[in-house]
Write a structure and sequence with these properties.
With 356 residues, the protein is of the alpha+beta class. It is built from eleven helices and 14 strands. Strands 9, 10, 11, 12, 13 and 14 form a six-stranded antiparallel beta sheet that branches. Strands 3-2-1-4 form a four-stranded mixed beta sheet, with helices on both faces. The longest helix is centred in the last third of the chain and has 18 residues.
Amino acid sequence: MTAPAGSSGRRTRVAVVFGGRSSEHAISCVTAGSVLRALDPERYEIVPIGIATDGRWVLESGDPDRLAIAGPDRLPAVDGDRTPATIGDVDVVFPLLHGPWGEDGTIQGMLEMAGVRYVGSGVLASAVGMDKAYLKVVLQAAGLPVLPSITVTVREWVADPAAVRQRVADLGYPAFVKPARGGSSIGIGKAHSADEIDAAVEGALRHDPKVLVEVSAEGAREVEVGVLEALDGGVETTMPAEIRITGDHEFYDFEAKYLPEEATELDVPADVPDATAQEARELAERAFRAVGCEGLARVDFFLMTDGSLIVNELNTMPGFTPLSMFPRMWAASGLDYPALVDRLLSLALQRDTGLR
């Protein structure tokens, strides 16, 4: 196992891994650009490793500007024709992969087998956090509130779509239809009535053979809490922040999240009662521990019209783009972006690989 950099005074060798095969490839690249820009070259020797959409691993450019969004139709991507690369001899890996084949425990398992330290949650927590259907099972078992939902597989949809339509009708409209293992709001649709369910299911199935159909939290506010492990093993949380969608967006879709010209307002901290803020922080820590997370997570909530909080999702590798809530929440809590990146690397370096 590679020993962490220490008293020798040498720079810590960090492999920043990004891109990947999922539909969130471009967002992973943007996140990597932000992290590369934040890493101090006097402290860290950076090895930028890109995974192309076809799965090829290459030694990518370390230029953050190459990984920025240049416009709605100009999203960044890993150049698969670059020099082939492997993780090699590094002290720690910062896996900035979003979605399946990365954020879902796959790369974590590979790194565990290789005995390489890495930032973030382990195999099981990463897999559970990625799969919205199983996440609900774990959260419910821990006594945490979630919205009613059903899971639909592509086999069920092809074999008996009428039965699926009836299950959705029993759940109630309006309903959100999501790829079960997706993110960045890619493939999400809202069905207001039975006339719209087919298109929503088929749209989600294009991204994942398993989809989640969930009751819409009508009138709810969307608030998020950042969770971070402390170096002493404790857990710290941020004050909740709120996402407010303006303009023509009915929900927090891809364009609202990532394209700068879109109308999204972020309140950090959220304008909520002190008791609500405290409850959100307590629920976020409970969710973090229930899933078995390590390092970091962002826990998303619906603040319902009656004042109750519902856990929506838990992200084990939240985005680090300039518009991302996780770093903004920590900056508002006194931990700026470079310090946040340093904290995550320090946590990874002090953690052993293997069972723990």
